[in-house]
Amino acid sequence: MVEKTYLQPSNVPKPAGDYSQGLMIKGGTLVMIAGQVPWDAEGKLVGPGDLKAQTVQVFENLKNMLAAAGATFKDAIKLTIFLKNREDFAIFKEIRAQYLIPPYPPTTLLVVKDLAREEWMLEVEVMAVVDK
After folding, report:
1. Backbone phi, then psi, for 88, in 5-degree steps?
2. Which residues, including other chains, have CB under 8 Å from residue 93's CB and lie 6 or more apart?
3. How many CA atoms lie within 13 A of 61 on its CB side?
């Protein structure tokens, strides 16, 4: 059985958002999902220039990858978000709330100059633990 303990020691500042600073896991199988991008199953770009559409596609890809491992977003233990524009985080959070329930797992947000493809506005990777 997977046991999750959220970490927020008093000598570390509390996060400004709804994410967790740390998470200790006991038991389970680790699932690591590479950065997912706004491509559909045929490898076609979804939502050129449309962050909402691209973010939904990224989360759908993550959901499908997690399902392939017998996991859901409830099993997520770490998110890493790569955004090209800091201002896009508000839209990202709006879409994230449709897939994950707070407290969100420990999260790292990186604002990057570029991603591997110019047309991508974001990329997200996830780690999860499943009870297997």
Report:
1. -75, -10
2. 17
3. 25
pLDDT at site 16: 76
- The C-alpha atoms of residue 54 and residue 111 are separated, in whole angstroms, by 16
Q: Using 50, 70 and 90 to split pLDDT, how confident is the model at 15? A: confident
If you average pLDDT over residues 3-21, what whole number do you get? 84
Q: Is the pLDDT of residue 33 over 80?
A: yes
- Residue 94 CA to residue 131 CA, distance in Å, equals 29
Q: Is 101 left (phi over 0), alpha (psi -120 to 50) or beta?
A: beta
Angle (CA) 99-95-121 rounded to 5° is 120
Token pair 């947000």 is at which residue? 109
pTM to 2 decimal places = 0.91
pLDDT of residue 49: 97
Cis peptide before 103 (omega within 30 of 0): yes
d(CA 55, CA 66): 16
Q: Which residues have CB under 8 Å from 13's CB, separation 6+? A: none
Q: β-strands 22-26, 107-111: how paired?
A: unpaired
